């Protein structure tokens, strides 16, 4: 068995100190164009993929944990969006929020993806599964722990993602958040087929603990939670 149901997820005790910070959200000005080189960078794919299905109200917020990630977002990602907002804490820019992808960028990215099939298996698995009808249904969730050693022994994923850019991005966010992160996979159902998930195979290489939050009513996977310590 590669998973088990758990009563609760053990987390670090969070500090109860009140953090008083002045928050401000301000528009950012960036270059008006950037290349569409999805094949060169799985992290660019990870950020862009949620916008390729033309759903309304999608945004993507990137914590600025280094100068390198700031330059990456400003130079290669942000120019593809109409709305680029800087989130400031105590007058310091701490993250960038992207929304409203430009139509010409979406169409160009979609064409690249369709013609070349260059998306990372992890990105495709996480974001682009077939649409599920899960609206207006009962919500009754349980937590399921992936038994990592068993999962890896049973997993038989082909075309394994070798690039580490997505992991480095997630790891840096976890270091900011005290060692864990919660992700929302799109259109996942919990069943035995998840043993073949490229995303879970990829995350299991690095995680110390890995959990799924599942709606018992329809087996919809609402979240992946990962710990590195």
Concise description?
The chain is α+β, with helices and mostly antiparallel strands and 229 residues long. The chain contains seven helices and nine strands, in the order ββαβαββααβααβαββ.
Strand order of the largest sheet: 1-6-8-9-7
* Gross morphology: globular
Beta-strand content? 15-25%
Instruction: Detail the poorly predicted runs.
Output: none
Q: Summarize the biggest pleated sheet.
A: 5 strands, antiparallel
Give the rounded overall mean pLDDT: 89
Helix and strand composition category: alpha+beta
Number of helices: 7
- Straight-line N-to-C gap: 23 Å
Number of strand elements: 9
What Rg do the Cα atoms give? 18 Å
Percentage of residues assigned to helices:
25-40%
Could you state the order of secondary-structure elements as H and E?
EEHEHEEHHEHHEHEE
């Amino acid at each position: 068995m590669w998973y088990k149901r758990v009563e609760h997820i053990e987390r670090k005790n969070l500090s109860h100190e009140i953090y008083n910070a002045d928050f401000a959200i301000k528009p950012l000005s960036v270059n008006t164009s950037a290349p569409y080189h999805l094949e060169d960078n799985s992290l660019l794919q990870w950020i862009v993929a949620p916008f390729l299905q033309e759903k309304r109200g999608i945004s993507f917020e990137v914590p600025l944990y280094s100068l390198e990630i700031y330059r990456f977002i400003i130079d290669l990602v942000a120019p593809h969006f109409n709305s680029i907002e800087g989130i400031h804490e105590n007058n310091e820019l701490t993250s960038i929020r992207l929304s409203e992808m430009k139509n010409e960028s979406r169409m160009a990215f979609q064409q690249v993806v369709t013609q070349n099939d260059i998306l990372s298996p992890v990105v495709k698995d996480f974001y682009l599964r077939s649409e599920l009808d899960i609206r207006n249904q009962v919500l009754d969730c349980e937590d399921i722990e992936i038994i990592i050693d068993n999962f890896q022994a049973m997993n038989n994923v082909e075309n394994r993602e070798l690039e580490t850019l997505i992991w480095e991005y997630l790891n840096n966010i976890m270091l900011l958040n005290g060692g864990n992160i919660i992700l929302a996979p799109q259109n996942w159902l919990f069943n035995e087929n998840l043993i073949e998930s490229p995303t879970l195979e990829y995350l299991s290489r690095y995680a110390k603990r890995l959990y799924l939050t599942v709606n018992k009513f329809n087996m919809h996977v609402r979240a992946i939670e990962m710990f590195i310590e």
